[in-house]
Structures are given as structure tokens and as C-alpha cells.
Design a protein that fits this description.
Blueprint lengths: L1 H19 L4 H12 L5 H8 L3 H8 L17 H16 L6 H15 L12 H10 L20 H18 L11 E10 L26 E9 L8 E5 L15 E5 L6 H18 L6 E5 L8 H9 L2 E5 L5 H4 L1 H24 L7 H15 L2 H10 L7 H5 L5 H41 L2 H14 L1
Parallel strand pairs: 1-5, 3-4, 5-6
Antiparallel strand pairs: 1-2, 2-3
Helix pairs in contact: 2-3, 2-4, 9-10, 12-13, 12-14, 16-17
């Protein structure tokens, strides 16, 4: 009798272990609802829904929640893991999928931020955590992206056409497609460096003089500025990024409307981009009462596609979409019009300041005031409207980009490469034909001629070696 009971217990224990790996949340919820409504008992629910009886009992008696999982607690909460999963999916959908190492980097950053205790070395999870995370999120899989190699250096027309097709399909599948007809809801942001010792071109001087000098800063340092605009010519406040963290004076003197950015290197980083979203982009569009959601086009630089930026955009109904890689000269509105005009305006403003301050050179303390002159000269309606039009982003029209002269270089390069390949193949085929013909001639000569010639033929072959 005892042996029979042990056998039964072992059977149910084994069955429960097998079922625990088979049922899903929906089956568990159905089993609990069936028992609570008294439409079936625990044993029948076990057979119908393949959920362990003990699990159903715990949920019915509210000893644990439906979302509660078995086993030890995970390092990250359910909400944190969902946030990570959503971020990974979002990045892959817009063409910038994250790698395994990048995922582990983000988890390490989250753990170090709040100092939670873990068993991980240097607070960085290993392969066991990674595989467990992937099992908990079966909607994510490790994929092998198509490597473009040399194609990345030269944009092909089919790449451009595919990007436009994918973008339009993405918008239609995820949000209100009428957003594509509203220029006030389509934005682009990008950063660029402005040299404080820009060349001034030719100057008038004494004829025959050996040298003519222009006093400038000797280090040729640059100041980074992050700019943004909409297709309806709404220009966002510029963020001027200075190297360093502490300053003894007001770095925005002369351009107080701008926003101050700080980084150790003076370049944009992920924290600064997040700060720009929070302090510039979101407040500026809300002040203007722009209808949401809005589209924000950025390039695929790593500073723009962090999980923090993704979270902020999702929470504020901002569709962060990456432009085609290495194609900013084709489809980046800021590059096409605004920066082209701004660089020229900056040179003129810099020159004017040097004329007004003879014997002085520009430092970072004068940058903001001089940049304001250039900004006011370039932040014009035509630069925004024409920039989005030339990029084919508003109105949305891929043919505008496909017909541009800037794409002809790629077409000619690809045609040249194709001709080279065809020429190489032709030469190889010709050489193979010659070799085959020579071999056939030699063979036929040895067979048809007298034995004495056949011998000489063999000797000639031997001499070749």
C-alpha cells in the first residue's frame, strides 16, 4: 500500500514538473476562472488546461498572483525586463537591432545605477542570465543581420527605395497614417561642429608681401551644437555643448535663449541626447501644442538609440525613427539645407566679429553670441521646408531622392564595379577557353602524328617542367 502511494505521489510530482514547462499565462487564467466559477474542480482543470493543481490552488486562494513566476526572483523586475524587451524590439524594427553585448551593457548600467546586490561579476550578467532572459521573452530571438560590407560606403538606389517602403509600412502598422500629411508633426534633429578658427578665404593686402596673416585660435577646436526643426519650419532651441562640467561664467552670454549642454569631451553623448529630449524637444512641442504622436528623425548614431531615449519617446508619444545609415547627404533635412546655410552664416558672423575686435581671437566664451548671429540668419522657413522636400520626407516621396544628382555617384560606382566584375569573368572565361583549346590541340597532335613526333611532343612537355 505504501509503495502504491509513493508511486502515485511520484507520478503527480513528475507530471507537475512536466506541466510547469508547458502551460502559459492564458491557460493558467482560464483554469483559475473555471475553478472560481465552480464549473470544474482542481483535478479536471489540471487535465483540461495542463496546469499543475498546486499552481491553480495558489492562484485561487490568492497566495500568489497570476504574473508570479516559480523559482528564485530575477535580478530585474518584470517591468524592467518588459522595458528591455520593448526596447530591443523597437530598435530592430527601425533597423538598428542591439547585440547581446549591448543588452548586457544596459543591464549592467541599470544594476550599477541603484546598487542592487547581485552575484554577477562586476555587476555584469553572464550567459546564464542571458539565456534565461531569452526564455522568459520568446518573442525575441537572436538574428543575423545582412552584412552590406562595401555597400555601406556607397548607397544604392534600391537601399533608398527599401528604406522609404519600410518607413511608410511601419507608420501605417503602428500609428495614425495621417501623420504623414501633417508637416507640423514631422521633425528632424542632428548635431554638427563649428570651428572657432574657420578659414576666411582670400583677403586684400600689400602686393608682393611674402605673408599675410589672420589671427585665429591656434587649437582649431570645435563647439558642437544640436539643432532640430519641423517640416512646417518650427525651429527648436539650439543646444550648445561645451567641454567640461563647471564654468566660471555664463557660457550662453549673448544667446540666452539657447540651452547649455555639458560633456567631458565636448561631443554629444547619450546622456546629453536624453537631456535634450527632456529640456528642449518635449517642452518646445508642448508649448507649441503640436498634435501627438510626432515623428522625430535622427541618424543611427549610438547616442540616439539608447533604452533611456526610447523610454522617454514612448512615454511622450514620440516616434523615434532612424534615417538610412550613411545617407545623411540624401535624406537628412538638417544636412541638406539648414547646416549648409548655417556653416556659411557662421563664417560670415565669425569674420564680422574679428573685424569688430581687431587683435582678438574667438574663444568658447564668445561662441554663443557669435553663433546667435549665424542662427538668426539661417533659421528661415525656406531652409526647413526645402530641406524636408529635398529629403523626400515631406511630402513623402522616394522618387525625389532617387532622381537627385547626389545619387548618381553611387550609380556610376556600382556600374563601374559591375563592369569590372564582368571584365574579370570574361577574361577568366577566355583564358579557360585558350587553355582548353591548347590542351586539345596538343592532344590531337600527339595522336595523329607519327610515333617519332609523339615522342618529341612528350619531350617538349617534359622540358616545360
Amino acid at each position: 500500500m505504501l509503495k502504491f502511494k509513493l508511486t502515485v505521489l511520484f507520478y503527480f510530482f513528475s507530471m507537475s514538473r512536466q506541466l510547469s514547462a508547458q502551460y502559459d499565462k492564458a491557460a493558467l487564467q482560464s483554469a483559475v476562472d473555471a475553478v472560481k466559477s465552480k464549473s470544474m474542480g482542481y483535478l479536471k482543470a489540471l487535465k483540461v488546461f495542463n496546469v499543475p493543481r498546486s499552481t491553480i490552488y495558489d492562484k485561487v486562494k490568492e497566495k500568489s498572483t497570476i504574473d508570479c513566476r516559480s523559482g528564485p526572483n530575477t535580478t530585474l523586475s518584470v517591468e524592467e525586463e518588459k522595458r528591455l524587451a520593448d526596447w530591443l524590439i523597437d530598435m530592430s524594427r527601425i533597423g538598428y537591432g542591439r547585440s547581446k553585448q549591448e543588452l548586457l551593457d544596459v543591464v549592467q548600467k541599470i544594476i550599477k545605477a541603484d546598487g542592487r546586490p547581485t552575484r554577477f561579476k562586476d555587476q555584469r550578467p553572464g550567459k546564464d542570465w542571458y539565456y534565461a532572459f531569452m526564455r522568459r521573452h520568446p518573442e525575441i530571438s537572436l538574428r543575423s543581420p545582412r552584412q552590406l560590407g562595401k555597400e555601406r560606403a556607397v548607397i544604392r538606389p534600391e537601399h533608398v527605395a527599401k528604406w522609404f517602403h519600410d518607413f511608410e509600412a511601419f507608420i501605417k502598422d503602428t500609428t495614425d497614417p495621417t501623420i504623414l500629411q501633417d508637416p507640423s508633426r514631422i521633425y528632424n534633429a542632428d548635431e554638427s561642429g563649428f570651428c572657432m578658427s574657420s578659414k576666411t578665404g582670400h583677403v586684400l593686402g600689400l602686393k608682393g608681401a611674402k605673408s599675410v596673416y589672420n589671427i585665429t585660435a591656434s587649437d582649431r577646436s570645435q563647439i558642437t551644437v544640436l539643432l532640430g526643426m519641423s517640416a512646417s519650419a518650427h525651429f527648436l532651441r539650439p543646444m550648445i555643448v561645451f567641454p567640461g562640467q563647471r564654468f566660471t561664467r555664463n557660457m550662453l552670454e549673448g544667446f540666452e535663449e539657447a540651452v547649455l549642454g555639458r560633456s567631458d569631451s565636448g561631443w554629444m553623448d547619450s546622456e546629453l541626447f536624453v537631456s535634450w529630449l527632456q529640456t528642449v524637444f518635449i517642452p518646445d512641442i508642448e508649448k507649441r501644442q503640436v498634435k501627438k504622436p510626432v515623428i522625430l528623425f535622427v541618424d543611427g548614431h549610438k547616442t540616439h538609440v539608447t533604452i533611456e531615449a526610447s523610454d522617454i519617446c514612448r512615454d511622450n508619444e514620440i516616434i523615434l525613427y532612424c534615417l538610412l545609415e550613411h545617407a545623411s547627404h540624401l535624406i537628412q533635412p538638417c544636412d541638406l539645407r539648414l547646416f549648409a546655410s548655417l556653416k556659411e552664416s557662421w563664417k560670415m558672423a565669425l569674420r564680422e566679429w574679428q573685424i569688430e575686435h581687431v587683435g582678438h581671437y574667438v574663444t568658447k566664451f564668445e561662441f554663443a553670441a557669435i553663433f546667435k548671429r549665424a542662427w538668426e540668419a539661417s533659421a528661415k522657413v525656406e531652409n526647413a521646408v526645402n530641406g524636408f522636400r529635398d529629403a523626400g520626407l515631406f511630402p513623402l516621396d522616394a522618387s525625389v531622392v532617387l532622381k537627385t544628382d547626389k545619387l548618381q555617384t553611387s550609380v556610376l560606382f556600382n556600374r563601374s564595379e559591375k563592369n569590372k566584375e564582368e571584365k574579370t569573368q570574361s577574361q577568366t572565361q577566355s583564358q579557360n577557353s585558350i587553355d582548353a583549346s591548347t590542351q586539345e590541340h596538343v592532344s590531337s597532335t600527339c595522336i595523329t602524328k607519327p610515333i617519332e613526333h609523339k615522342k618529341s611532343c612528350r619531350q617538349s612537355k617534359a622540358n616545360d617542367f
